[in-house]
User: Fold these one by one.
Assistant:
Number 1:
Amino acid sequence: MSCGRANEQGAQFCKSCGAKLSQSDNSQQGMNNSASDSDAAFKQNNGYQQYDISENVYVGTTRMTKKEFDKCESIKPITKNLMVAAIITYVIGIISFVVNVIVAGNIFGILDVVIVVGLGLGIQLAKSRACAVALGAYSLFNLIFMMILTGRPGGWLIIICAVYAIIYTFKYQKTWNKYQQTGQL
Ligand SMILES: [Zn+2]
């Protein structure tokens, strides 16, 4: 009803705009399941089933879970960019492992691999802003370290990757926060 997009039968939320689908949109679901109970509560509470003060968000059936949210079409450009940034960290990790640990025999190089891949996982799976910022700090440190070591700056790929990760983890969080407050994407 909100954006005009057709959704699958039985869907609770619009895949396009995130709006809660009303019972009339969802009549195929029937009256005697849990959806009718939550719809009653939905109407009674003027659209919001429950307000979580500690989290400052609305919870319950009036909002998508983060899993459902991640599947929405308008979120995909953000999650795709985060996935690309994460994959770059995995590639950097693999190259770093081969070059520093296997070829050069530097056992401490494993630490670099763990840091980069670990932050990449945090960016991809948790969409973590903290991991993105930490990757930014690490890549700057790496740049300075390479400059001291070789006399010229290095590690550009990881810096670009960190900038991407910072931009898109913050975008993701902003969209999620807005959705929590308005129920719209
Ligand atoms: Zn919609």
Number 2:
Amino acid sequence: MTYVVTDNCIKCKFTDCVEVCPVDCFYEGENMLVIHPDECIDCGVCVPECPAEAIFPDSDPAAEPQWLRLNRDYADQWPNITCKKEPMPDADALNGLPGKLADFSTKPGEGD
Ligand code: SF4
Ligand code: SF4
């Protein structure tokens, strides 16, 4: 099992999640974070830290197979992120809005 990041993370980067992960398995894209499924130890401590409620166990219906695939694909391509940074400008305004997948960027973030 693993935890996966889903669509409400797009354009967020509150990044509270990365600070609590004991194995540093978050990876940063231009406007979303993902979890590496082979590195996550299923501890669940990141879930209550995410203000966008975007993290789910892969057994949850909210974590559809497409999200597990997306997390795996981009965790292999994007840089690791372990430190909290400033959220994206519209993070609060866009929190919870539907249709965020249309804004997903495949480009890597800066990492740390
Ligand atoms: S706190 Fe949640 S929504 Fe924000 S970057 Fe982390 S996983 Fe994404
Ligand atoms: S469930 Fe635990 S190991 Fe997995 S990403 Fe969240 S904090 Fe990290």
Number 3:
Amino acid sequence: MTVSAHLELAQVFQQDGFTATGPLLSADEVEVYRGIYDRFLSGEIDSGDKRSDLGSHVPRRDGVRENITQIMWPSALHRPILDLPLHSRALAVARELIGDDAELDFDMLIHKAPHTGVPTPWHQDAAYWIDLPDTRAVSIWVALDEAVLDNGCMWYVKGSHQQPLRPHRPTSDGKNIETDCSEDEPGATAVPLSPGEGAAHGGHTLHYSRGNTTDTVRRAYILNYRPAAMIRLERAQGADHGLEENVRKVRNANADAGE
Ligand SMILES: O=C(O)CCC(=O)C(=O)O
């Protein structure tokens, strides 16, 4: 990408609170990530209690393991991911968008199986996080499948990053949070993506995705960045998005299994 294209990306991000990033992975690279992703989904790569159902506020359909599978910290659970190109490319984009001091805060997988039909509730990521003096943050959502309206491409609300954080309440199962918003909200914009393309949003940007009502999977790899000093501050307060506790449990389970 050229210098002016990066500048433009940063301007759109500042103005709207989100921006499409363009392609971050080639078709061949997408295949490699899909292979690893499916090993996580099948359980071949153990994710311990880092795996949860982001859609557990809705009863599960027969034969569906989770409504929305969320796996935190794939790069810590399976280190070879860090030798693949996405982390360095997404880091370069994050630095263009929020500054040269950006580092990876955490990564995650969010998957919507066919016909699960459960929307990701409207929320602002900052409502999940501890308060920090420097609120710069960016989340880069990378599609590994064609992401369209009916399988749950992301929606963002333009300009919502400049408004105060909305009140959030727990979802009905108490495991996640949601806020009042809808696709009719002024500025609400769907961002369909092709496999390998990304979209970036800030920590205060309202977002959501529809449920997957199609025959195909919707796999996304998500990388979150914030200033290195703020990550240190988070960690000092014990906020690591589940890294230590869960990695320790998986390591212990592997040791128990004789690995
Ligand atoms: O993939 C989704 O449906 C939701 C993603 C999300 O909430 C996020 O990336 O912060």
